[in-house]
Amino acid sequence: EEGEFHKSVGTGVHGDHRELHTTRVKPPQQGTNFILADSSHEGLEGIYTFDSNTDEIAVNNSASWKKEYHHPAVDAHYNSEKVYDYFLNEHDRNSLDDEGMAIISYVNYGTDFNNAFWNGRHMTYGNGDGDYMVPLSAGLDVAAHEMAHGVITNTANLEYRFESGALNEAFADIFGALVDEDNWEIGEDIMGPGAIADGRTSLRSLSDPSKYPVNEEYIPYGDGEGMYPSHMDEFYDLPMHLDNGGVHINSSIINHAAYITGEQIGKEKLGQIYYRALVTYLTPTSDFSDARLYIIQSAEDIYGEGSEEARATADGFDQVGIYE
Ligand code: ASN
Ligand code: ZN
């Protein structure tokens, strides 16, 4: 029957077998097609995965999505649902806007494109150049990072520059590490053979940010050793035209504070605390010091003043040199 919800199976970028929620449609000619449109979630407008090459929802002539061309779309569709489930189950949040807005991804974007982004309306994933990166939708933490930008836009709406922008980036990374529970790295599943051979086994690390160097042109603006900063002593005073004033660089200081707290109380409680601060207290112009105040306040709201959780939250900020 046309428009009928249908289960498909597929293969992801790394060969994983995936079960997918899809829709059966009737093409103009004979036969049956299946599209990456998931309408199985009550109260959600749907999860849709588009192919940038056709500007249409990804389509296949069977319910088995195993051709290599489909691998990036299979992972984007699968990971979008995982991230949707995370926000619903952990935070009672129904999609990016908490009103069930459609979750839309575009895959196969550009040529050799080593990035993914949220443009204010949907996610877009490149396929990488095959050496430094593989198709970016393969990373659950990458999908979570990009979708978290959508949540942030709809909540604190942190301005994408200087410290507020670094907080925006840090919340995106922290949710990336919370959804993809296995480790404290971002992008470990999207690095290509050339990057891995060079020792770049992830994009960023929350546990040890300074294991990776920053872009060469940023080095003169930092007080550290040219590595990602783990402490305010290594803060990069970047001008606006370089990474919007260091939004992807100084974010690692907040990332590291979250890691320190998370190691003490676990990822579930860390998520409750940071999510509450994001939706309840933070504003577009909040800076690092505001973040300390509000994130500790959130821990106290949920777990009580003087609780182990509140103390672990404060300890995270103490250890990276952020004070009120
Ligand atoms: N992947 C990056 C991000 O989400 C892309 C960008 O800088 N716009 O922040
Ligand atoms: Zn980002």
Automatic annotation (TrEMBL):
Residues 9-152 form the Peptidase M4 domain. The keyword Signal applies. Transmembrane segments: none annotated. Its cofactor is Zn(2+). Its EC number is 3.4.24.-. It is found in: Secreted. One of its GO terms (molecular function) is metallopeptidase activity. Residues 156-322 form the Peptidase M4 C-terminal domain. Keywords: Hydrolase, Metal-binding, Metalloprotease, Protease, Secreted, Signal, Zinc, Zymogen. Coiled coil: none annotated. Belongs to the peptidase M4 family. Extracellular zinc metalloprotease. This is Neutral metalloproteinase.
